[in-house]
Amino acid sequence: MNSVDGFLAMGGYGAFVWPAYGLAVLVLGGLAAYSWRRYRASVAMVDRLRQQSGRSR
Amino acid sequence: MLSRFANPARFVRVSAALLPWCAGVSIALILLGLYLALIASPPDYQQGEAVRIMYVHVPSAWMALNVYLFVAAASAVALVWRHPLAEVAARAAAPIGACFTFVCLTTGSLWGRPMWGTWWVWDARLTSVLVLFFLYLGYIALVNGFDDPARGSRAGSLLAVVGVVNLPIIKFSVDWWNTLHQPASVLRLGKPTIALSMLAPLLVMASGFTVLFVTLLLIRMRTDLKQRRIRALQLDRLTPAPAPPHTESGLPARPVAAREGI
Predict the structure, then answer these.
(1) Residue B175 burial (10 A CB sphere; 0-12, 13-18, 19+)
(2) What confidence score (pLDDT) does residue B244 get?
(3) B190 vs chain A: nearest CA distance in angstroms?
(4) Is the CB of residue A26 less than 8 Å away from at least one CB of chain B?
């Protein structure tokens, strides 16, 4: 328990170390999630348009 | 004509094979980097545990510069040779670079507060990196800001190429001017002035970020190509023509789709 507390305290710098890591994870993870979702949506949209144009002929 | 869209087609094939590997390797490297940075590496004798911010700050700073160099080089290729993939690559890379620059600036601020006693100073290093961030934003705004995408790309590419002058200013700002920011301790002439136990997490994290950049670049380039296909298909539906010839892929071989290269 003590070692976990000590780890989280980061020698008194916890208030700076953890936000730094959290922010990096949030920004880079957010970009990755956004990019991937946009990619999946684009793939689905192309499939839908191709099906529609196939049906109309 | 064929050779012109052979390249994007090959890109789509090769990138599909590369993507899962890149994603896996980047996640593994970043997890290993986090372990080394937060647990395995020692606290600094002067900075204590606050030094751990370095393992995010410095790799993201390297990425901010390198990705900009990539955007500028791809923009130059797009301007000079009009290679269709170069423009797609520059467009896809810029937001990734902007994110790395943002992480660099904010983690630097969080590191500066306990070490220098201030969140921000208007000195050469910090200001030139802020300018880099605005160059990224300017490029993104220009590229998306025109009704005619070709004109937007040209304007953005020009800005990206001209903005390269900022890179040596950032790199050498710590040597040319007096600044709170410390000079380079890894990328310098002679040996790095940093202990191996601290160099290892730095390099692992930097390679993790680099592979992450490649992963995101591939995903975003493929998205851009899909978006072009969507525009071509939508244009197709607006201008129906009688019985178009079909390619082996089952797609109508229309000039628009062919020119888009996918």
Answers:
(1) exposed
(2) 54
(3) 30
(4) no
**Can you list the domains of chain B with their CATH numbers?**
2-177+199-236+243-260 (1.20.120)
- φ and ψ at residue A13, rounded to 5 degrees: -100, 10
pLDDT at position B235: 85
For the cut 80, the answer to whether the pLDDT of residue B243 exceeds it is no
The ipTM is 0.90
CB contact under 8 A, A11 and B106: no
Give the list of residues 6+ apart from residue B251 with CB closer than 8 angstroms, or none: A50, B257
Give which of B168, B164, B7 is closest to B81, Cα–Cα.
B7
Among A4, A26, A35, the strongest candidate for a mutation testing the B interface, having the largest count of B CBs within 10 A, is A35
A44 touches chain B (CB under 8 A): no
If you measure CA to CA, which chain B residue comes closest to A38?
A: B223
Pairwise CA distance, residues B51 & A13, whole Å: 9
Average pLDDT score over residue span B23-48: 90
| Rounded distance between C-alpha atoms, residue B71 and residue B53, angstroms | 27
